[in-house]
Amino acid sequence: MLLAKGYEVHGLIRRASTFNTARVDHLYVDPHDPKARLFLHYGDLSDGARMVTLLADIKPDEVYNLAAQSHVRVSFDEPEHTADTTGVGTIRLLEAVRLSGIETRFYQASSSEMFGATPPPQNEETPFYPRSPYGAAKVYSYWITKNYREAYGMFAVNGILFNHESPRRGETFVTRKITRAVAAIKAGKQDLLYMGNLDAVRDWGYAAEYVEGMWRMLQADEPDDFVLATGGNYTVRDFLQIAFEHAGLNWEEHVRFDERYLRPTEVDALVGDASKAQEKLGWKATVHTPELARIMVDADIEALKHAGNNWIDSVDLASWKN
Ligand SMILES: C[C@H]1O[C@H](OP(=O)(O)OP(=O)(O)OC[C@H]2O[C@@H](n3cnc4c(=O)[nH]c(N)nc43)[C@H](O)[C@@H]2O)[C@@H](O)[C@@H](O)C1=O
Question: Which cofactor does it need (predicted)?
């Protein structure tokens, strides 16, 4: 079930609109679900007045705010732009919902980056300590979403998602950078891969499952905030090893260090505890980091065979087959 290529969204929708439809090139329609859903993507949140018109026109049952400058390293180079899209954009959208007078449910894409320097495991009670302009902007958006829930009685929720990846992941994020390189090295098109900090620990899950979790948050009886994570604990080095090994390669022969990929302040370890989502939403990740790495390597090897042609991965999850 596909919604949008570009952001790694896989969703369950009947009618979806996006602020800039040009950005959505794949749409899946589930004929059994009559709700209208609006998904906002990168850079959509610059014009508050236009958003009011759009919302009043579409009258979506659900709004998913996925719009952000979402690259942590880039947020150090473009801190003001990041604050504007990732932070202030959220209040523009919440205000547009309020001013348009529509009844809708609002999802805010909050992030595990908000926990930053606070050691794992992290859950909904863990204090925030952001370590980047991106993380700081997400903390603002988290609190303003909560404030609109309390101040105006909006059904507004924060999904605090740990790293979620898929073959549709942007090419400059570490997982996709690695799996694309594995495919290219395997095909003899590349020899070396330049990387930054290999010691960082992340909890990488499969985006398809996380988007289902986002959807579950908006079907709940009451608005609340939820962590989505696998609970896994892997370093970038582990991911390299699993991905290269899957293609029969030795990562140490191909990986080199480049300090340009280091960050002024790093988030050392993010490992989520999603027991609240399991208890209240019935959500649990089934794909863990090693399987995810293999899905992504296989997809990038397949994608090379289709270079220049339209090709998109499909989701093969047992829970989606009914
Ligand atoms: C939840 C959160 O997840 C993502 O943020 P991120 O964790 O920063 O993701 P990433 O894939 O850029 O880095 C992961 C780790 O990998 C290290 N690393 C080493 N060498 C390279 C490298 O060469 N490139 C990159 N990108 N990272 C590298 C890097 O230093 C970091 O420790 C975003 O979706 C964000 O929007 C979000 O919300």
Answer: NADP(+)
Question: 71 with 134: CB under 8 angstroms?
Answer: yes
The pLDDT of residue 312: 76
d(CA 2, CA 29): 8
Identify the segments of the chain with pLDDT beneath 50.
1-29
CATH of domain 15-313: 3.40.50.720
The predicted pLDDT at position 53 comes to 85
Residue 70 CB less than 6 A away from ligand 1: yes
According to DSSP, residue 87 is labeled I
Residue 158 pLDDT: 98
275 given a catalytic annotation = no
pLDDT of residue 32: 61
Strand-pairing partners, residue 272, are 122
Q: How far apart are CA 262 and CA 320, in angstroms?
A: 38
Residue 279: active-site member: no
Summarize pLDDT for 179-204 with one digit per residue, the tens: 999 999 999 999 999 999 999 999 99
- For ligand 1, the distance from its centroid to the CA atom of residue 305, given in whole angstroms, is 27
Q: In sequence order, which residues have a C-beta less than 8 Å from that of residue 311 and are 6 or more positions away?
A: 302, 303
**Domain limits, the chain:** 15-313
Whole-model pTM? 0.91
Fill in the DSSP letter of residue 162.
Answer: P
- Report pLDDT for 82: 94
Can you tell me the distance from the alpha carbon of 65 to that of 38, in angstroms, rounded to the nearest whole number? 8
- Rounded to the nearest angstrom, the distance between the alpha carbon of 178 and the centre of ligand 1 is 12
Q: What integer pLDDT is reported at residue 30 of this predicted model?
A: 52
From 8, 75, 107, 113, active-site residue: 113
User: Cα dihedral angle (174, 228, 232, 13), rounded to 10 degrees?
Assistant: -70
Contact 42, 20 (CB under 8 A): no
